[in-house]
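Holo model, NAP. Inputs:
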Amino acid sequence: MIKIVVNVSGSAHRKRGGDDSKDSKRMENQRGIIQEVADGSISVFFHNILPLLQTGTVCIFKFESCGGKAMSLHEKVALVTGSGRGIGRAIAERYAARGAKVVINYASNSAPAEEVVGKIVREGGNAVAIQADIARVDDIRRLFDKALDTYGRLDIVVANAGIELVAQSVLDFTEADFDRLFAVNAKGAFFTLQQAARHIADNGRIIYIGTSNTAFPLPGRALYGGSKIAAQFLVQVLAKEVGHRGVAVNSILPTAIEGAGVFTDGVRSEVREFVKSFRPMQRMGTVEDVADAAEYLAGDLAGFVSGQHLMVSGGGPA
Ligand SMILES: NC(=O)c1ccc[n+]([C@@H]2O[C@H](COP(=O)([O-])OP(=O)(O)OC[C@H]3O[C@@H](n4cnc5c(N)ncnc54)[C@H](OP(=O)(O)O)[C@@H]3O)[C@@H](O)[C@H]2O)c1
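Output:
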């Protein structure tokens, strides 16, 4: 449910002959009207301003989420790469909960991907799992073709699939390390965003999941950060190339996230203490924190936000 607070402009009331100071006080008293939104329909319940409305203007000035169906993605189709596990899964499940039909993508682990589909369907949603290795351009094309064959359109694409290799010195990386990381994180993200730009519906949303590492270059992160920053640049270029169609392109840059990647099986207490020592909010990020940002960027409230990098890091570095 959404609560909408509306305000009544003073001009119409003044026309009725009241003096300005008295009117503005009375205007203040007209605030605080509540209405309900359900399945896209709006009913407004006014308390004591009905006479004013006959000649006045009402403007909605504030939306407040009251939990539940805060935002609707009904009729939307979302594709999230790398969504069998971790951050991608949380984003896909969130979109499904908001009513979108969702394409789940995985590289080799079909069981978790099918589990996500099963959960979404049990909860009344609509989802399909499609295998595709994002390191292979042919696979990316096949993924988009199958998604379009299945649902007929794409409104939201999240380029999330990525692999991590950290805590290693520049001196120790091999050519194989370089090729493996850049194949998924740079080449894979590039061609995912290219396919997204080709196939996304007008007014659609393209979101890239980068990393806050690119804003805070730390020892050990050279290859990971280097491979992730390429698509961040592409986001800014693509935003300019597809903006005329109303399509918004943005990045989310999460910090270290509990329940995903290297922290899938938990976080050691010394890591937690270390995080507390420098992060203003003194906690790890969660997959839900990232899903919150992905929900915002996919929804109506972010329609004019494009070419941006939204850091989800509790105010701190990686
Ligand atoms: N975890 C963090 O702390 C963190 C922080 C900042 C940014 N990120 C970024 O967030 C994104 C998701 O990371 P995560 O930690 O959630 O990952 P994760 O828990 O390791 O899950 C990875 C998901 O991506 C899929 N995937 C991996 N390689 C793929 C490929 N070549 N083609 C298609 N799918 C592939 C996996 O499929 P399979 O199950 O089949 O392998 C799995 O579904 C990445 O881009 C990462 O750089 C993560």
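Residues 1-69 have pLDDT under 50 and may be disordered. Residues 81-88, 105-109, 112, 133-135, 160-164, 184, 209, 211, 228, 254, 256-257, 260-261, 263-264 surround NAP (CB under 6 Å).
Archived with the compound record.
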